[in-house]
Amino acid sequence: MSSDELHNRLAVVERELAWHRDLRAIEDVLTRYSRALDWLDDAAIESVFWDDAEIDYGFFKGSGKDFKPLLMDLEHRVGRRWHFTAQVKIALDGDMAEVESYNFTIAAEKIGFDESSPLMQFYGTYIDRFERREGRWGIVRRRHLLVGGAFVPEAAMVGEFAELNQIGEADPRHPEFRRLAS
Q1: How far apart are CA 75 and CA 170, in angstroms?
Q2: Which residues contact 104 (CB under 8 A, 6 or more apart)?
Q3: Does a structural domain hold residue 169?
Q4: Count of CA atoms in the C-beta half-sphere (13 A) of 56
Q5: Residues of the chain whose pLDDT is less than 70?
Q6: Which phi and psi (to 5°) does residue 167 adopt?
Q7: Which of 47, 74, 56 has the alpha carbon at shortest distance from 134?
Q8: Is residue 47 part of a domain?
């Protein structure tokens, strides 16, 4: 193999590696979003949305700067919460990316089990635009499209399932909370 061929192959590998790094960095932002909400990590949400982002959840239309505290206030008022993002599709274009992903959210009014309070479930799609600024990816535009929702009775865990670990109050003071570096 000639020196030129080797340099060309190396350039291709470097481009592919950079592409995969960008994909992973964008997926990490989506994961950070869910973790920030689930653990009530106010600091982590700051690295998800750019302050000048255009946000449209229907109930809120405005900037990322105004959305972040409102969103975290909503989450702080819920006893338990769980956010899941999957089926992420990313179209990279330099320092911009169009991203679409599905979300599933479960929320409960109470921290502990309560048969009288149903679990709220929401299903939807995030239509996002990401932008890399100073080497870091963040959401610069998000529109949430709700597909549906449901109130589901919570079932008491009985028998062997009653021994499962319960999360309790989930916030950065929780003994299992870890600030995972991205």
Answers
A1: 11
A2: 83, 84, 86, 121, 122, 123
A3: no
A4: 8
A5: 12, 182
A6: -70, -35
A7: 47
A8: yes
Position 182 scores a pLDDT of 57
- Structural domain includes residue 82: yes
Query: Over the stretch 135-180, which tens digit does the pLDDT of each residue have?
Result: 999 999 999 999 999 999 988 888 998 888 888 899 999 999 998 8
| Rounded distance between C-alpha atoms, residue 75 and residue 73, angstroms | 5
> Residue 135 has what pLDDT?
96
Give ∠ CA 139-105-19 in degrees, rounded to 5: 35
d(CA 24, CA 9): 23
Residues of the domain holding 85: 3-163
pLDDT of 122: 97
- Structural domain count, the chain: 1
- Looking at residue 155, what is its pLDDT? 85
User: Cα–Cα distance between 109 and 111 in angstroms, integer?
Assistant: 7
**CATH number of the domain that residue 133 is part of:** 3.10.450.50
Q: Is residue 181 a part of any domain in this protein? A: no
